[in-house]
Write a structure and sequence with these properties.
Layout (H helix, E strand, L loop, with lengths): L20 H9 L3 H6 L3 E6 L16 E7 L17 E7 L8 H10 L1 E10 L11
Parallel strand pairs: 1-2, 1-3, 3-4
Amino acid sequence: MNIDPSKPNQQLTIRPGLGGGTSLSMQRRMFDARFATRYFVGNGLDIGGGADSLGLFVELFPLIKNVVNYDKGQGNAQFLDNVADGSFDFVFSSHCLEHMRDPAEALSNWIRVVKPGGHLVIAVPDEGIKKPRR
């Protein structure tokens, strides 16, 4: 299956109590009006979005035309073999890069699918934050 930036490839469902990385970062983005109109413009690809995809928050970003949720069912995020070069205005990924076998190779492919002048927005965990003991 080739990924078409103009067509959503998956129905998104809202799950009560979901608190993934995208949900948390959207709370911060609401306080930065420039973010909403600068980076998320046009057709976007959300790599590893799963049930917490950027597509759930499109009403916060008035210039988004469409967001394609690219998760395991769509292909391997390491390679994006079924995504054409320069096919998306922006690529977003929250808490996925750290799970790639080769992050440098993944980044190379993620950049490859962004149109010239587009944006790659990535959120990764802060290694300095200590996790509570259980």
